[in-house]
Design a protein that fits this description.
The protein is mainly alpha-helical. It has 2 domains: about 1-60, Helicase, Ruva Protein, domain 3; about 65-135, 30s ribosomal protein s13, domain 2 (Irregular), CATH 4.10.910.10. Helix content is about 45%, strand content about 5%. The chain is built from 7 helices and 2 strands, in the order ββααααααα. It has helices spanning about 15, 25-35, 50-60, 65-80, 85-90, 105-110, 120-125; strands spanning about 1-5, 5. A two-stranded antiparallel sheet has the order 1-2. Helix 2 crosses helix 3. The protein starts with a strand and ends in a 9-residue tail after the last helix.
């Protein structure tokens, strides 16, 4: 089954397979299957054409995949242009929702960079000092 450019895995249950779509989570899947009157425990490969069409028709009401990604990027761009606090955090690649950054936030900030004592030879190579190293 293919929905908005995404191939859903045939061997998965319908309730798990639909959550492969960006913007559709477990809670939305329950509502979609209830509206489409499809059993959640069925495998995707065993769905009939009628059931697939009902699911796709209901999914048209939701913003998923590309449309949702474009909207999210637009919201972030708007926050940056406004100069809002959240926009500044986005542009500096820091956590936006109030998390601490002194000891954590490694996934957002990247690998640790050690700053400490530098040997004179290395400092000259890096252009920090102009003094020639003494031997």
């Amino acid at each position: 089954m293919r929905i908005s450019g995404i191939n859903l895995p045939d061997e998965k249950r319908v309730d798990i397979g639909l959550s492969y779509l960006y913007g559709i989570g477990r809670k939305n899947v329950v509502n979609i299957l209830k509206k489409a009157e499809v059993d959640a425990s069925k495998r995707i490969k065993t769905l009939s054409e009628d059931e697939q069409k009902r699911i796709q028709k209901i999914l048209e009401e939701y913003k998923i995949e590309g449309d949702l990604k474009v909207e999210i990027q637009g919201n972030i761009k708007r926050l940056r242009e406004l100069g809002a606090y959240r926009g500044i955090r986005h542009s500096k690649n820091l956590p936006v929702r109030g998390q601490r950054t002194k000891s954590n936030a490694r996934t957002k900030r990247g690998k640790r960079v050690t700053i400490g004592a530098i040997k004179k030879e290395e400092a000259v190579k890096m252009g920090i000092t102009t003094a020639e190293p003494t031997k």
